[in-house]
Amino acid sequence: MGVEPQLARCGRRIDLELAPPCGFISVAVDFAMVSATQRDTWESFSKASDIVENESDYAGGMYLITSGLPDETGQKIRDALANYVRVVIDDEWPIQRQGVIPDQGWKPLRDIGTATATIHPQASGEAVIEAQLLTTFNDLYVARTTRLSAVEGHVPGVIGGIVFFGAVITIAYTYLFGFQNFSMHLAMTGIVAATLALVIVMIISLDRPFRGEISVSPDPFIMTQHSWVAAVDKK
What we know:
Largest sheet: none
Helix content: over 70%
Mean pLDDT: 78
Shape: rod-shaped
Number of strands: 0
Number of domains: 1
Order of helices and strands: HHHHHHH
Low-confidence stretches: 1-19
């Protein structure tokens, strides 16, 4: 009779001794998984920013190249580019932040293409400029379609579910650590829960790079606009 309780107490002590290392392993695995998801989310957000910068750079580049064309021909392309950038900033961006793919920019983009394709160069230099404009216009088109494709891009739902339940399991494991001081146990659990919560909130906030208040801004397009205004003022 006296042996069984003693064995039970020994078994309980062994469980408490094994629980901390097992728990720490679980915490390490879950934090590694959360960190990987966080890294992928941030990389996706950074790529979305690069896409926007590329698109605005192509528009700005076309605007500058037209300076080598006759005034009337070049102005027609510049007006089409200015209208495209304005539509992207004022019309498309608010719609993107709602998670909807905008289409207001397609007509201004077609106007750019039409104005570029109908230059009818009168000299070899103009022919070179037309070829460069057509190449850059193609790059602008690709950048635009890439941006629109990224509007609905996000971390797959199954990954989000795994991260969430992994966090729950990690927090549950902290109750097996066997602290004799309840306040210390409570503080450790709170720190782990708060850390995981902050990381998950950041993942959710950056998950859709063009949606919501925390999203990629149209600042590159605005800067391009300002550079055009500054160039006109210098003239």
